[in-house]
Amino acid sequence: MTSPASLLPPLDDRATLWERLRDRAMGNPSTARMLGWLTPLLITLLAGVLRLVNLAHPHQIMFDETYYVKDAWSLWNLGYEAKWGDNADAHLLTGDDSAMQTAGSFVVHPPLGKWIIALGIAAFGPGSSLGWRLTTAILGTLTVLLVYLIALLLTRSRTVAAIAGGLLAIDGLGIVMSRIALLDGVLAFFVMLGVLFVLLDRRRTMPLLAMIGSGRDPDDPPLMNGPVLWARPWLIAAGVAFGASAAVKWSGVYALAAFGLYVVVTDALARRRAGVALWPTDAVFRQGPASFLLSVGPALATYLVAWTGWLVTSGGYGRQADADPLVALWKYHEAILKFHVGLHSPHPYASPAWQWPLLLRPTAIWVGDKPTGCGTDHCIAVISSVPNPLIWYASIAAALYLLYLFVRGLIDRRPAGPALTLPLVGLVATYVPWLLVGNRTIFQFYTIAMVPFLVIGLAVALRELAGRKDTPLHRRQAGQRTVVVYLCVVVLASVFYYPVWTGMSVPYEFWLVHNWLPGWI
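Given the sequence above, the corresponding structure tokens read:
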């Protein structure tokens, strides 16, 4: 009879229990294949459940849904965003869209995100709160899968990928921004899709560049330049994805610029490793223009396609500003830019970007009107965009740690790997620009575009804490125990916060203990 002990991997004084279990699983090809598809499937399924269950609650227009739901429905019907009459929100709750007018409305965000929201409304009707939020919930779920795949490409570790994807799956900001018809979750999806395509391009082109100097005789003259690579389908796909992100919100342009530079830098370093003598100029002045056309060209085309409804109709705001529709569109963009530059309207939940790492003022998305059913006479139902604080603050610490490793690598002249640099590039693209907007009214929930990079960085930092093969055994054991304990506590914190992420009716005192800082109320 087989004893339970015989089912465990053989003891190895040089390996921890986790390492023995992992090696046993990975040593079996069928088990490894099963884990290869089962792990991301289960994580994505978990994310979907947390985002889709009871998605129609509350059956009210929350926060800025008042803009995007109506804009989406007028886009679907007219091809452009239109004005609405009085009490339009109340009418929409019953499915009555008679308040929709035909006059164009001045809107300050491109139309793609609203077209995506419109798909759900078209499927379930303008009075369905499920329909308003369905597509953002689906894309929020798929963003979790993208994070898993990106982390896997960066680290080649299913464990790190599972931690990164799992953290986003259970994080409050990711859940809340998936359960509301706003644009920011859609923006995050397209940014991460573009990042995935950049990594796939890198995986395809790096071996080609590595072959530049292979087979060369040492007596041959130095190789001055490498090839100009035009066959880069994944770079074209990245341009389309980043163009789509910009067609949701203009801040997507920063991601296009940051990861465009990332492509140029990684091309340059690959050419240096291959022995190209003029590797900086080769990457910038020879490959650079080709990479620019392959990425920015598709991005611009995607952005313009998103405006098709406005271009082919005549009723949109500013559409008649010029006989040439592209000139009229340019003038419209000038008006939008002027609005964004001058936007400064006081809001009780406004939060400047310098506050975001400290999590001083998360946004109260919704507060229920006299909720009941919580077992006491004093109930409250809220939806707060506060992230899981244990994930958030640990992610900020991890980002600072990765930045320290990057700077130390520069000083020691040791190249930093993509697992370290890419999360930092993503944070530069999604955070630093907001530090430069001065007094403009912005909100903490804009950080949903940062969160995927933060959890990837946290997962990479946790791997460092868990130890590598050359780390002494006792340190690996202590580090891995610490990681396991941390992840367990994080899960418990998400369970604790889930009611205030989804608008459940809870006792007032229970809600109060979730507000760790004064600004969270």
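Strands lie at 82-84, 100-104, 364-367, 379-384, 505-507. Try to locate this feature in the token string yourself.
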